[in-house]
């Protein structure tokens, strides 16, 4: 051994910060991801708000109802769809392989992704709330509803981020991840009470939707945006917040287990 | 001169398999085996690379270069043999070990929205004692591309960016897997001078190539690999026993084309001349070119 200088590696925290910055630039500089993930839900809100402005009963507009659904769909896009596509891309183009050959702590990659999901989620929620409030007079949550809003968003986003990371391993590359995950997300949105009132979805479809996180995120957020009188229109006749937490929590655990089992830093070999 | 490689045969110039691992070598390999399903990509490879050396692994496509290098880099698990890279088994190398090696993959690094300078800064932040990213850009000749994104670079510039990413951590050992494949001659020449300036900085390098001239130009020693085995290890000037290789004398006699292989072509021709009254008909003396030697080395055994 020649001159083994005892140089200490940079702290894990400092690499986390670097990766957070890298992931923010990667997201916000890519036009497709910004349009697809950020602008698309806002456009849907604008269109639906303008077209489907009817009263769903109790003096509540569909736009008010749709607000909960589109926020849930926005979270799904920022987490599950975004992670599945971006990680599949980075795995197939060699970015992950390159990183795993450096002394970057492995945790830093995931911390960077979490920072990205968090930033995009906060941004999309803020934009949706602002557009809903300013353009369509959507009533914003008040008091303890904010607490529900935050935990449903955080738990749903965590579950979907973990699932997105797991799903990325099923795809050959970013394009095939997109082809796989986009239609699934769309179907889930239709049957989970995003585009229609959930009570109008056939029961058997409601049952399928109940297996996945989106339905529970939308339901939890409806408890935030709608007056409690409308809880009677839910399948169980109540908001079922305990069950929302339980199902999303289970998906977090399942997602994490799948990630640990399936995550690969390279394509093959 | 037919070569009949037996499983136990040692290639000329190569390390004998019975020699123990050299703990002071930058890279020490004994009996490396790697299989993919039923096919054996690396079939018992022995190699020592000294610190400070530039070693070229030369061989045709599919010879096992990438497989070998990626086992040494810790990307692939070996099926047999013993390997030390900077004194550490790559299968167990941690962050500290990775900080001492630089890697330029055959397939490059991927697409990013970051600029060249931003990519280098991020990469530098993973290391204890990185080089200055701006200086590294200067070194690889990409200073005027500092603010450009990777996708806007030409193939040659992309590859220089890959090298910049490989050396910004100030590695003691740099792996380069086919760094110049697909380059035009001018870009290749520029790349060679980059490698020479890295040599002057004291970096040990293992590079793979399927270009004979590249190995000859850059390497202190060349290992020729074919079908997962090293068939020879030598300094470029002695590759394939050049110099001692027999010359081929050919001429026409009684209307028949004749050839003879000889290590003393001068004496042979002098003797031949006495059999003809005037000029020896169609006389030609040919030495095998390095190309011929190489092609024979990597060819299927007779
Ligand atoms: N991941 C892999 N899975 C299956 N076979 C592989 C894999 N990588 C390489 N091979 C095979 O192993 C042999 C050596 O390949 P490689 O090491 O890439 O050679 P080289 O880099 O010299 O071109 C080839 O026959 C190749 O097809
Ligand atoms: Mg190769």
Automatic annotation (TrEMBL), chain A:
- Superkingdom, according to UniProt? Bacteria
Q: Which residues cross the membrane?
A: 34-52, 64-89, 110-134, 146-167, 179-198, 244-263
GO biological process terms held by the UniProt record = response to antibiotic
**Places the protein is found:** Cell membrane; Membrane
Q: How does it sit in the membrane?
A: Multi-pass membrane protein
**Span of domain ABC transmembrane type-2:** 32-266
One Gene Ontology cellular component: ATP-binding cassette (ABC) transporter complex
Keyword annotations from UniProtKB, A to Z: Antibiotic resistance, Cell membrane, Membrane, Transmembrane, Transmembrane helix, Transport
Tell me the protein family, please.
Belongs to the ABC-2 integral membrane protein family.
For this entry, the protein name equals: Transport permease protein
The molecular function terms in GO held by this entry are:
ABC-type transporter activity
Automatic annotation (TrEMBL), chain B:
Report the principal subcellular site: membrane
Q: Which CDD domains match?
A: ABC_DR_subfamily_A (cd03230)
| A Gene Ontology BP annotation from the UniProt entry | response to antibiotic
Start and end of every ABC transporter domain?
Answer: 27-252
Ranges of Low complexity composition bias in the record: 1-19
GO CC: one term? plasma membrane
Q: Where in the cell is it found?
A: Cell membrane
The record ties this protein, via InterPro entries, to: AAA+_ATPase, ABC_transporter-like_ATP-bd, ABC_transporter-like_CS, ABC_transporter_ATP-binding, P-loop_NTPase
Provide the residue span(s) of the region labelled Disordered: 1-21
Record field: transmembrane: none
Q: What is this protein called?
A: ABC-2 type transport system ATP-binding protein
Topologically, how does it sit relative to the membrane?
Answer: Peripheral membrane protein
Q: Which GO terms describe its molecular function?
A: ATP binding; ATP hydrolysis activity
Q: For this UniProt record, give its keywords in alphabetical order, as a comma-separated list.
A: Antibiotic resistance, ATP-binding, Cell membrane, Membrane, Nucleotide-binding, Translocase, Transport
SUPFAM superfamilies found in the cross-reference section? P-loop containing nucleoside triphosphate hydrolases (SSF52540)
């Amino acid at each position: 051994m020649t001159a083994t200088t005892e140089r200490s590696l940079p702290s894990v925290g400092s690499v986390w910060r670097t990766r957070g910055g890298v992931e923010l630039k990667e997201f916000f500089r890519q036009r497709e991801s910004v349009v697809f993930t950020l602008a698309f839900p806002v456009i849907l809100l604008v269109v639906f708000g303008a077209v489907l402005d009817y009263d769903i009963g109790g003096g509540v507009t569909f736009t008010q109802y749709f607000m909960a659904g589109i926020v849930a769909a926005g979270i799904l896009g920022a987490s599950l769809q975004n992670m599945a596509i971006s990680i599949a891309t980075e795995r197939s183009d060699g970015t992950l392989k390159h990183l795993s050959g450096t002394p970057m702590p492995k945790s830093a990659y995931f911390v960077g992704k979490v920072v990205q999901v968090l930033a995009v989620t906060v941004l999309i929620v803020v934009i949706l709330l602002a557009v809903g409030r300013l353009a369509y007079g959507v009533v914003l949550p008040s008091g303890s509803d904010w607490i529900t809003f935050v935990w449903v968003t955080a738990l749903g986003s965590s579950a979907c981020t973990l699932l997105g990371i797991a799903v990325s391993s099923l795809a050959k590359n970013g394009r095939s991840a997109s082809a796989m995950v986009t239609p699934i997300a769309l179907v889930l949105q239709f049957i989970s009470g995003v585009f229609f009132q959930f009570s109008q979805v056939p029961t058997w479809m409601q049952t399928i939707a109940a297996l996945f996180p989106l339905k529970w995120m939308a339901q939890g957020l409806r408890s935030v945006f709608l007056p409690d009188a409308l809880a009677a229109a839910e399948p169980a006749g109540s908001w079922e917040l305990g069950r929302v937490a339980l199902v999303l929590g289970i998906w977090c655990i399942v997602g994490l287990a799948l990630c640990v089992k399936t995550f690969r830093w390279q394509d093959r070999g | 001169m037919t070569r009949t490689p037996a499983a136990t045969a040692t290639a000329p110039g190569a390390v004998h398999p019975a020699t123990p691992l050299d703990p002071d070598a930058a890279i020490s390999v004994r009996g490396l085996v790697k299989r993919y399903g039923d096919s054996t990509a690396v079939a018992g490879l022995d190699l020592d690379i000294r610190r400070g050396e530039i070693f070229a692994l030369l061989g045709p496509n599919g010879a096992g270069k990438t497989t070998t290098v990626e086992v040494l880099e810790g990307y692939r698990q070996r099926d047999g043999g013993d390997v030390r890279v900077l004194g550490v088994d790559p299968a167990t190398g941690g962050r500290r070990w990775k900080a001492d090696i630089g890697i330029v993959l055959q397939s490059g690094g991927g697409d990013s929205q970051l600029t060249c300078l931003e990519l280098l800064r991020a990469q530098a932040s993973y290391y204890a004692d990185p080089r200055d990213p701006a200086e590294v850009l200067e070194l690889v000749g990409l200073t005027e591309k500092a603010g450009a994104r990777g996708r806007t670079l030409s193939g040659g510039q992309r590859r220089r960016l890959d090298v910049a990413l490989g050396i910004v951590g100030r590695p003691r050992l740099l792996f380069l897997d086919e760094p110049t494949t697909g380059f035009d001659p001018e870009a290749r020449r520029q790349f060679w001078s980059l490698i020479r300036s890295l040599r002057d900085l004291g970096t040990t390098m293992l590079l793979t190539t399927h270009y004979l001239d590249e190995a000859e130009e850059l390497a202190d020693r060349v290992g020729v690999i074919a079908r997962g085995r090293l068939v020879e290890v030598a300094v470029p000037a002695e590759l394939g026993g050049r110099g001692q290789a027999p010359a081929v004398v050919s001429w026409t006699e009684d209307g028949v084309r004749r050839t003879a292989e000889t290590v003393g072509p001068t004496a042979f021709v002098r003797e031949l001349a006495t059999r003809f009254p005037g000029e020896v008909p169609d006389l030609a003396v040919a030495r095998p070119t390095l190309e011929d030697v190489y092609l024979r080395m990597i060819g299927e055994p007779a």
